[in-house]
Protein backbone atom coordinates (compact mmCIF):
# COMPACT_ATOMS: atom_id res chain seq x y z
CA UNK A 1 0.00 0.00 0.00
CA UNK A 2 2.66 2.45 1.10
CA UNK A 3 4.92 1.39 -1.75
CA UNK A 4 2.05 1.78 -4.22
CA UNK A 5 1.38 5.28 -2.98
CA UNK A 6 5.03 6.16 -3.36
CA UNK A 7 5.18 4.66 -6.83
CA UNK A 8 2.08 6.58 -7.88
CA UNK A 9 3.53 9.74 -6.43
CA UNK A 10 6.82 9.27 -8.26
CA UNK A 11 5.04 8.46 -11.50
CA UNK A 12 2.86 11.56 -11.31
CA UNK A 13 5.90 13.68 -10.44
CA UNK A 14 7.67 12.35 -13.50
CA UNK A 15 4.63 13.12 -15.63
CA UNK A 16 4.30 16.70 -14.47
CA UNK A 17 8.03 17.43 -14.64
CA UNK A 18 8.78 19.77 -17.50
CA UNK A 19 10.85 18.44 -20.36
CA UNK A 20 13.29 21.08 -21.51
CA UNK A 21 14.77 21.21 -24.98
CA UNK A 22 16.94 23.29 -27.23
CA UNK A 23 16.02 24.11 -30.83
CA UNK A 24 18.09 23.78 -33.96
CA UNK A 25 17.23 25.24 -37.36
CA UNK A 26 17.46 22.88 -40.31
CA UNK A 27 17.56 24.11 -43.88
CA UNK A 28 20.14 22.39 -46.01
CA UNK A 29 22.57 24.43 -48.11
CA UNK A 30 21.76 27.63 -46.22
CA UNK A 31 23.52 29.76 -43.59
CA UNK A 32 20.99 28.59 -40.97
CA UNK A 33 21.55 24.85 -41.38
CA UNK A 34 22.26 23.37 -37.93
CA UNK A 35 21.80 26.81 -36.36
CA UNK A 36 21.12 27.18 -32.67
CA UNK A 37 17.95 29.11 -31.82
CA UNK A 38 18.74 31.62 -29.11
CA UNK A 39 17.02 34.22 -26.97
CA UNK A 40 18.13 37.84 -26.99
CA UNK A 41 16.23 41.05 -26.32
CA UNK A 42 12.82 39.32 -26.08
CA UNK A 43 13.26 37.87 -29.56
CA UNK A 44 14.60 34.64 -31.00
CA UNK A 45 17.61 34.54 -33.31
CA UNK A 46 19.78 31.91 -34.89
CA UNK A 47 23.37 31.58 -33.65
CA UNK A 48 23.32 34.79 -31.63
CA UNK A 49 24.66 34.74 -28.06
CA UNK A 50 21.98 33.95 -25.50
CA UNK A 51 21.12 36.93 -23.30
CA UNK A 52 20.16 35.99 -19.76
CA UNK A 53 20.16 37.26 -16.22
CA UNK A 54 20.83 35.73 -12.81
CA UNK A 55 19.81 37.69 -9.70
CA UNK A 56 22.70 38.17 -7.28
CA UNK A 57 20.75 36.55 -4.41
CA UNK A 58 20.37 33.36 -6.45
CA UNK A 59 24.01 33.27 -7.51
CA UNK A 60 25.41 29.76 -7.93
CA UNK A 61 21.94 28.22 -8.11
CA UNK A 62 21.40 29.78 -11.56
CA UNK A 63 22.01 27.67 -14.67
CA UNK A 64 24.98 28.81 -16.80
CA UNK A 65 22.64 31.04 -18.83
CA UNK A 66 24.57 30.67 -22.07
CA UNK A 67 22.20 28.25 -23.78
CA UNK A 68 18.58 28.80 -24.76
CA UNK A 69 16.10 26.16 -23.67
CA UNK A 70 12.37 25.86 -24.10
CA UNK A 71 9.58 24.01 -22.32
CA UNK A 72 6.00 23.05 -23.08
CA UNK A 73 5.17 22.91 -26.76
CA UNK A 74 1.76 21.33 -26.71
CA UNK A 75 -0.15 24.28 -28.11
CA UNK A 76 1.72 26.89 -26.05
CA UNK A 77 5.48 27.24 -25.73
CA UNK A 78 7.58 28.68 -22.91
CA UNK A 79 11.18 29.60 -22.36
CA UNK A 80 13.06 27.05 -20.20
CA UNK A 81 13.59 29.27 -17.18
CA UNK A 82 13.36 29.11 -13.39
CA UNK A 83 12.06 32.62 -12.72
CA UNK A 84 8.63 32.41 -11.01
CA UNK A 85 5.86 33.01 -13.52
CA UNK A 86 8.05 31.81 -16.38
CA UNK A 87 8.38 33.49 -19.76
CA UNK A 88 5.82 32.79 -22.45
CA UNK A 89 6.67 32.58 -26.13
CA UNK A 90 4.35 34.48 -28.51
CA UNK A 91 4.19 35.67 -32.08
CA UNK A 92 3.73 39.33 -32.81
CA UNK A 93 0.50 39.49 -34.84
CA UNK A 94 1.75 42.41 -36.97
CA UNK A 95 5.38 41.65 -37.84
CA UNK A 96 5.41 37.90 -37.15
CA UNK A 97 8.47 38.11 -34.88
CA UNK A 98 8.68 35.31 -32.36
CA UNK A 99 9.12 36.90 -28.94
CA UNK A 100 8.87 36.04 -25.27
CA UNK A 101 7.56 37.90 -22.28
CA UNK A 102 9.85 39.71 -19.88
CA UNK A 103 10.35 38.05 -16.50
CA UNK A 104 7.72 39.11 -13.91
CA UNK A 105 5.38 40.35 -16.63
CA UNK A 106 2.68 38.77 -18.74
CA UNK A 107 2.59 41.75 -21.11
CA UNK A 108 2.38 40.94 -24.82
CA UNK A 109 1.43 42.94 -27.89
CA UNK A 110 -2.31 43.11 -28.47
CA UNK A 111 -3.46 40.07 -30.44
CA UNK A 112 -0.26 38.14 -29.75
CA UNK A 113 -0.49 34.53 -30.91
CA UNK A 114 0.46 32.03 -28.22
CA UNK A 115 -1.01 28.76 -29.49
CA UNK A 116 -0.32 26.49 -32.42
CA UNK A 117 2.96 24.94 -31.27
CA UNK A 118 3.59 21.22 -31.31
CA UNK A 119 6.71 19.60 -29.98
CA UNK A 120 7.35 15.88 -30.31
CA UNK A 121 10.65 14.94 -28.73
CA UNK A 122 12.41 11.80 -29.82
CA UNK A 123 15.62 9.89 -30.03
CA UNK A 124 18.07 11.23 -31.16
CA UNK A 125 15.98 14.37 -31.76
CA UNK A 126 12.41 15.53 -32.26
CA UNK A 127 10.59 18.34 -33.97
CA UNK A 128 8.92 21.59 -33.05
CA UNK A 129 6.31 22.56 -35.56
CA UNK A 130 3.89 25.44 -35.73
CA UNK A 131 0.76 26.26 -37.69
CA UNK A 132 1.92 27.85 -40.97
CA UNK A 133 5.57 27.21 -40.22
CA UNK A 134 8.67 29.04 -39.07
CA UNK A 135 10.84 31.38 -41.09
CA UNK A 136 14.24 32.99 -40.54
CA UNK A 137 14.96 36.43 -41.96
CA UNK A 138 18.24 38.35 -42.01
CA UNK A 139 18.28 40.33 -38.75
CA UNK A 140 17.33 43.96 -39.35
CA UNK A 141 19.18 45.38 -36.33
CA UNK A 142 22.60 45.38 -37.96
CA UNK A 143 23.97 42.76 -35.56
CA UNK A 144 24.12 40.11 -38.25
CA UNK A 145 22.59 36.67 -38.38
CA UNK A 146 18.97 35.67 -38.68
CA UNK A 147 15.85 36.39 -36.67
CA UNK A 148 13.01 33.90 -36.19
CA UNK A 149 9.48 34.67 -37.41
CA UNK A 150 6.23 32.78 -37.52
CA UNK A 151 4.07 33.00 -40.62
CA UNK A 152 0.93 34.93 -39.75
CA UNK A 153 -2.05 35.68 -41.92
CA UNK A 154 -1.52 38.56 -44.33
CA UNK A 155 2.19 38.87 -43.60
CA UNK A 156 4.49 39.10 -46.61
CA UNK A 157 8.07 38.40 -45.64
CA UNK A 158 11.15 39.43 -47.59
CA UNK A 159 12.44 37.11 -50.29
CA UNK A 160 15.63 36.70 -48.27
CA UNK A 161 13.64 34.85 -45.60
CA UNK A 162 14.06 31.09 -45.36
CA UNK A 163 11.54 28.57 -44.15
CA UNK A 164 13.12 26.05 -41.86
CA UNK A 165 12.44 22.91 -39.86
CA UNK A 166 13.11 23.06 -36.12
CA UNK A 167 14.70 20.08 -34.43
CA UNK A 168 13.99 19.76 -30.70
CA UNK A 169 16.85 18.30 -28.68
CA UNK A 170 16.33 17.20 -25.08
CA UNK A 171 18.01 19.35 -22.47
CA UNK A 172 18.59 18.35 -18.86
CA UNK A 173 17.03 21.46 -17.31
CA UNK A 174 16.30 25.16 -17.69
CA UNK A 175 19.05 27.03 -19.52
CA UNK A 176 18.81 30.23 -17.50
CA UNK A 177 17.18 31.84 -14.52
CA UNK A 178 15.57 34.20 -17.00
CA UNK A 179 16.21 35.35 -20.57
CA UNK A 180 16.55 39.04 -21.23
C1 LIG B 1 28.40 27.72 -20.98
O1 LIG B 1 29.13 28.02 -19.84
C2 LIG B 1 29.67 26.87 -19.19
C3 LIG B 1 30.26 27.29 -17.86
O2 LIG B 1 30.94 28.50 -17.95
C4 LIG B 1 30.67 26.22 -20.14
O3 LIG B 1 31.20 25.07 -19.54
C5 LIG B 1 29.97 25.85 -21.43
O4 LIG B 1 30.88 25.35 -22.36
C6 LIG B 1 29.24 27.03 -22.04
N1 LIG B 1 28.41 26.57 -23.13
C7 LIG B 1 28.28 27.24 -24.26
C8 LIG B 1 27.34 26.66 -25.25
O5 LIG B 1 28.88 28.28 -24.47
C1 LIG C 1 2.51 16.97 -33.51
O1 LIG C 1 3.59 16.54 -34.35
C2 LIG C 1 3.66 15.13 -34.46
C3 LIG C 1 4.86 14.76 -35.35
O2 LIG C 1 5.83 15.72 -35.42
C4 LIG C 1 2.39 14.58 -35.08
O3 LIG C 1 2.45 13.19 -35.10
C5 LIG C 1 1.18 15.03 -34.23
O4 LIG C 1 0.00 14.64 -34.85
C6 LIG C 1 1.18 16.53 -34.07
N1 LIG C 1 0.12 16.92 -33.15
C7 LIG C 1 -0.71 17.92 -33.42
C8 LIG C 1 -1.71 18.24 -32.34
O5 LIG C 1 -0.66 18.56 -34.45
C1 LIG D 1 13.93 12.90 -25.28
O1 LIG D 1 12.82 12.88 -24.40
C2 LIG D 1 11.73 12.13 -24.89
C3 LIG D 1 10.62 12.17 -23.88
O2 LIG D 1 10.38 13.45 -23.42
C4 LIG D 1 12.14 10.69 -25.12
O3 LIG D 1 11.07 9.99 -25.70
C5 LIG D 1 13.36 10.63 -26.04
O4 LIG D 1 13.82 9.31 -26.15
C6 LIG D 1 14.46 11.50 -25.49
N1 LIG D 1 15.57 11.52 -26.43
C7 LIG D 1 16.81 11.21 -26.08
C8 LIG D 1 17.86 11.34 -27.14
O5 LIG D 1 17.10 10.85 -24.97
TrEMBL record:
Keywords: Signal. InterPro entries: PhiA_domain. Residues 1-18 form the signal peptide. This is IgE-binding protein. It comes from the Eukaryota.
Amino acid sequence: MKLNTLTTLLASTALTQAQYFTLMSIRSASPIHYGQITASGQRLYINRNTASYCPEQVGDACPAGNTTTFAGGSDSLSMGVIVPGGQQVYIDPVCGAVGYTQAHSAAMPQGAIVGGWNVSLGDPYGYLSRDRGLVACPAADGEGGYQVFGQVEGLVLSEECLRFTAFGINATGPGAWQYT
